[in-house]
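User: Can you help me understand a structure? I only have the sequence.
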Amino acid sequence: MNEKNLLAEQFETNRNHLRAVAYRMLGSRSEADDAVQETWLRLNRADTAEVSNLGGWLTTVVARICLDVLRARKSRREEPLGPHVPEPSADQDTTDAETMMADSVGAALLVVLETLSPAERLAFVLHDMFAMSFDDIAPVVGRSVVATRQLASRARRRVQGGTPAEDADLQRDRRVVDAFLAASRNGDFAALLEVLDPEIVFRADPVAVRMGTLAEIHGAAAVAEVFKGRAQAAKPALVDGTMGVAVIFGGRLRIVLAITIEGDKISEINAIADPDGIKAFEVVPLAT
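Assistant: Let's start by predicting it. Here is the structure, written out as tokens:
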């Protein structure tokens, strides 16, 4: 069997799994099929000689495709697609009652999933539904492992019936971000140290670096120096469903700070100023 035929056989072995992932991500049969087809095209273009786990590689690719679709859907301000419940296969041995129950649960879940941000939805679906590790999910959503775990945790609570306003952790995180912004605006170095984890990591994308910061900074004192006396145009915001900061001036969103909070300390800040990078996030500024 030649290499191309072997890849095709391995892809077919994973097709149902990929379609299940894509469907739960997108809530649409046709979009799920398109995502799986695009995964096949990317497989054909890729050099997979060094890939030891092709199933995991394919899952990562289809997840990234779905994430792009969800983010594009959000950026166009489209109404979410209604859930399309998969029909059972012809060879499934299920009664009508069992099928109706499965369809009802599936539809209800998809309705809730539509309320999540793209990153929350991906983290929850891949981890809770398909047992993918946070180490593997984090690169897909472009977050740290801790931040990805928080995305899934918040998504899980919302799926179980909670809302952001009722989320005690989100309220706690809002207090931390408010304290961080107040200390920053006031140039209060000591107060900044109070809300920053001693081992905090700050990262900035190339556009943010051109605005005058280093690409990566470690430690509370060094990060506090960066933010002391700044944040005048910053507002607390929900960034992909978690607490972060939106920097808005001239009527435009200029910088997004994706923040990771552990306990009552900020442990990671990622500054995104590239316009295309900003579009990848769902950002909802909050009233102050």
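Now, to help you interpret it: Residues 3-87+96-162 form a domain with the Butyryl-CoA Dehydrogenase, subunit A; domain 3 fold (CATH 1.20.140.160). Confidence is low (pLDDT under 50) at residues 78-105. Let me know which part you'd like to focus on.
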